[in-house]
Amino acid sequence: MPDKIDLRRQNSINSEFLQHHGRFEYPPSPSTPNGIKRFRRQESQNYFAGEYEPEHYADDKQQQPQKLVFFNMDPTKLSHKIADINLAELGRKALSMAEAEMPGVMQLRKVFGPKKILKGVRLAGCLHVTAQTGVMIETLRELGAEIQWSCCNPLSTQDHVAAALVKAGISIYAWKGETMDEKLWCIDQTIFFPDGQPLNAILDDGCNLTKVIHEKYSHLTSVIHGCSEETTAGITKLRILLRDRKLKVPVINVNDSVTKSKFDNYYGCGESLIDGIKRATDVMIGGKVVVLIGYGNVGKGCAKSLSGLGARIIVTEIDPICALQAAMDGYQVTTMAEARKLGQIFVTATGSTGLIRGEHILEMRDMAILCNIGSGQTEIDVVWLKENAVKIENVKPQVDIYHLSNGRAIILPADGRVINLSCAHGNPSLVMSNSFSNQILAQIELFTKRGEYSIGIHTLPKTLDEQVAMAHLEYLGVKLEKITEAQSVYTDTDSDDSSGIALTTQSTSLIETSTSTNQTSFIPSFQTKRLPINPDAVAPDGSLVRTLLTTIGGSMAQFELPPRMTSHAVEHRTVYEIWYFLSGQGEFWRKQNEREEIVIVDADICITIPVGTQFQFRTIGQKSLVAVAITMPPWSGDSEVIPREGIWNASSINIENSSTKLRHSIYLFMIVVTFLIVKMF
Question: What pTM does this model have?
Answer without folding.
Answer: 0.65
